[in-house]
DNA sequence: GTCTATAACGGGATAGAC
DNA sequence: GTCTATCCCGTTATAGAC
């Protein structure tokens, strides 16, 4: 077969695996299931990727890099602090609303790989605080915001953004929300989070 | 054999499985590995619990109930608001410092079970906001704190507490912290979180 | 009632021959 | 690109020991 057909087979494989990995969790998806749903021969998976693990890594890099770039650009931009925080929070939540399972996917990858996680280059685009931390220090030195621990502040920010998505079923159940209402709850967090972060740095 | 011996075998099984589930993740532990490490016959696992899944459920209930009670008591107590928040944050983090893998364990359980998660009764002791939400409403009505969304506030509070533990390896790597320093970073969050929460409700 | 030994089934992951 | 062999896994069953 020619190259374009080969690519379309490969793409079909990735697309199918991505869907299954996100919904069921990597460890609960079988390679046969992926192959069947993608309509290809099982061995083709071993032909394109060498193992299920490498298929996962390819998908992980792809998924993260797709989303992380715009976030990194916001964090590294020269926007004024409060505007930057607002833009980061709102953009991040918009991304996650579209793909609510991303958080669980990444967290399970971190837990599974532990120290090896650093080897996944995509992570560097996701958690990269150098310029943001510098900006926070500068603002604090100038007395424009309260003196805070910059790294703690960043961790707090992403905690407020990301964690609720990983317990979405729990929140929905506890507040008796259907899918639509649960989504609304998460969207409303944009304002909640922004205000909480700002209140903690303003005099 | 007598009851105590039976219990000790059962306990050994639970203890071993708990350790492995926490470190490697439920889906990456084999029943044969558990049996071997516990020094018992594989058939015994099926004798005491009927399946790996039921062994998991037993351990899940045990682990959560062990820790959740004291947290629920704080949340349902009649402490003044700021003192309650302080006590909740500090106690929760103390618990997690001792068992940093608990967060990943629970999150993966939520993700795996999705809607079925509600069936795990232990969850009700972990996320139960009725009296806390009522207290927040009361304080807001009395004009003693800013008007806020109580459910959002609770979700923010647990996000700030829990999420950093689930990305501990990432935080450690990014800030070049060894185990001791990473632990210190998490301990220091007690004060950070408390201050952020209070700043967001005080006038 | 508690425990061991052993085997077998269906399915999954992967390597290598073709 | 495909087929096959091999090995690991969770589960079930059987037969028997203390």
Number of domains of chain A: 2
List low-confidence stretches of chain A.
none
Greatest interface and its residue counts? A-B, 48 and 48 residues
* Terminal-residue CA separation of chain A: 66 Å
**Number of separate strands of chain A:** 0
Radius of gyration of chain A over all CA atoms, rounded: 20 Å
Shape descriptor of chain A reads: globular
Please state roughly what percent of the residues of chain A sit in beta strands, choosing from under 5%, 5-15%, 15-25%, 25-35%, 35-45% or over 45%.
Answer: under 5%
Order of helices and strands of chain A: HHHHHHHHHHH
Oligomeric state of the chains in view:
homodimer
Describe this structure in words.
Chain A has 203 residues and is mainly α. Chain A folds into two domains: 1-48, Arc Repressor Mutant, subunit A; 57-201, Tetracycline Repressor, domain 2 (Orthogonal Bundle). In chain A, 76% of the residues lie in helices and 0% in strands. Chain A contains eleven helices and no strands. The longest helix of chain A is centred in the N-terminal third of the chain and has 25 residues, at 52-76. Chain A is globular and about 65 Å long. Chain A starts with a helix and ends with a helix. Chains A and B meet through helix 6, helix 9, helix 10 and helix 11 of A and helix 6, helix 9, helix 10 and helix 11 of B. Chain B binds a DNA duplex (18 and 18 nucleotides) through helix 1 and helix 3.
């Amino acid at each position: 077969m020619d190259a374009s057909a080969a690519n379309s087979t490969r793409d079909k494989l990735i697309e199918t695996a991505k869907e299954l990995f996100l919904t069921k969790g990597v460890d609960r998806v079988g390679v046969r299931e992926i192959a069947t749903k993608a309509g290809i021969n099982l061995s083709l998976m071993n032909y394109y990727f060498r193992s299920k693990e490498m298929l996962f890594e390819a998908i992980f890099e792809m998924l993260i890099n797709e989303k992380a770039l715009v976030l990194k650009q916001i964090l590294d931009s020269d926007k004024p602090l409060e505007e930057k925080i607002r833009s980061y929070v709102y953009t991040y939540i918009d991304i996650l609303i579209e793909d609510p399972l991303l958080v669980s996917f990444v967290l399970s990858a971190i837990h599974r790989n532990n120290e090896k996680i650093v080897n996944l280059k995509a992570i560097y685009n996701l958690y990269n605080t150098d310029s943001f931390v510098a900006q926070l220090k500068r603002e604090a030195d100038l007395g424009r915001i309260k003196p805070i621990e910059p790294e703690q502040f960043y961790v707090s920010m992403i905690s407020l953004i990301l964690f609720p998505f990983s317990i979405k079923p729990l929140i929905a159940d506890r507040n008796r929300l259907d899918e639509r209402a649960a989504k609304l709850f998460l969207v409303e967090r944009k304002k909640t989070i922004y205000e909480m972060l700002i209140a903690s740095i303003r005099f």
